[in-house]
Known about the structure:
Chain A is of the alpha/beta class. Chain A is built from eight helices and 16 strands. Chain B has two domains: 5-219, HUPs (Rossmann fold, 3-Layer(aba) Sandwich); 241-273, no CATH class.
Amino acid sequence: xxxxxxxxxxxxxxxxxxxxxxTRALCGLAHGLAASLGAEVSAALLGxxxxxxxxxxxxxxxxxxxxxxxxKLSVYNPGIHLPLIKSLCKSExxxxxxxxxxxxxxxxxxxxxxxxxxxxxxxxxxxxxxxxALKCSKPIYGGNVIAGYSATVAPxxxxxxxxxxxxxxxxxxxxxxxxxxxxxxxxxxxxxxxxRIKETGEEIGLEEAPAVVSGGRGxxxxxxxxxxSKLAGVLGGAVGASRPPVDSGWVPSTSQVGIxxxxxxxxxxxxxxxxxxxxxxxxxxxxxxxVAINNDPDAYIFKVSDYGVVGDWRSVLPAFTExxxxxxxxxxxx
Amino acid sequence: xxxxxQIVVCVKQVPDPESPPSSFTLDSSEMRVTCSGVPxxxxxxxxxxxxxxxxxxxxxxxxxxxVSAGRGLSKAVLLKAxxxxxxxxxxxxxxxxxxxxxxxxxxxxxxxxxxxDNVEKYDLVLTGIQAAxxxxxxxxxxxxxxxxxxxxxxxxxxxxxxxxxRVERVLPDGYEVMEAGLPVLLTxxxxxxxxxxxxxxxxxxxxxxxxxxxxxxxxxxxxGSEKSVDLVSLELPDRERRCQMVEADEPxxxxxxxxxxxxxxxxxxGFVH
Lengths: 334, 273
């Protein structure tokens, strides 16, 4: 039953046990590729109590969804998960394996490529088909360059950046069938996950926030970030930072946006007192609308922004926040 | 006291990633990124890995070996790395290892061979989570697979006790704790802390520490058939936007005008309460 032109999606569930939105996006991406390659799309979901999520996944259109359910699969552990996925790849022989560039995807993809003798491209922002060849685009040099890679071996394991690919509309593809992934769950691994600790106090994570208000070195200290929080509160968004405020300990490292932090693509990104280092830009360049407030008219951030105000943020930002709060509450835009 | 802990840290030299975007230009015929005038530095996450190694050495006592592979590596950068408290250095220098010309699998194979041939025993192998040039995040995993040791990735903290290791791994909303026996490979994130600066005295002293340079021929490595992905195109991203500057007589008025402008241009339709 080898499916040598096939595309295999490695699915994930979110904290509430529902199918992850990143997995839906992979389904959309896979269907687009499948049409060009004449390939069949299948998917795998490993976990504990994820039967409903597997049905959700099947509804997104993969012809077959291989489900492995076991208590030992409740938390990702490469020593447990990898042998199962390797076994599936051996029996199905996909040409392409797609996984989100998530904590799991980042860890799993290189190992899997090694185990199945394939290639791997991580953090892809685009996949195109030219004839029968696949080309994966990904940012390199901190996003200063976009590289295209093609595989010289098969299968190719690809991790896909968040925000790439659109979830298929309900009913866009005939629902597939869920079947058991017929491999034995390993009884032990060389490393154990002993605890999982949630740390963020904020209700909205940076990566999910519809708006992100980020501060840079020019904020000058931890106090200034409370002014950024006010704007984030008005927008129902989150507060981020470039690297200097994190290095200086003004904000926790979970707030960092950039190549060494989080990659965000919100509707609105407000960059306050951020000069625009390439390392930070790589983390926010895909934002829908970028607004910059900076007292240096030559700051690079203005070149990559849609709207800008030159001025001291201490004066500009409170007035911006107050006016915006009034406008949004007043519902002046319809 | 038994034998000291043996720690291997793999470090890569990259063009300084903090350089302005305009310093990164393309040589498409050679399929290379040229970074003229950009000084080489240790890749930032590799610096974090080295910092973790030195911190563990301070706590437990250890011998720290730095391993680096590349072509035309800066001696000053290598020496500075050695001077923060490492004990010896192993460099693989070969024309084949030109930047942008080898893939992650080939790099891992070179490092694995160098470590196997030259490091008698290792308890911990450390890499950064990804290099600042390729941004691939693969070499650590592949190296661990090739050495046949467990890999714990995205590590922000590591504690050793009785031949075992306990690490905290970065998750989007917190962290998880993983435990494993030694030897183990860790890919290290920036939360472990910035690399300390070596003193001038230490840099001078580092010149006297054992340094070995080998070629691929010395290692008996042929990378010919090991490539798994080809770099086929390079482009500069089109990040620039047309910025509408909002101006007013007072900064407060400019702030208010900015809000009005965003609403007028219907950029905030999703945010109305």
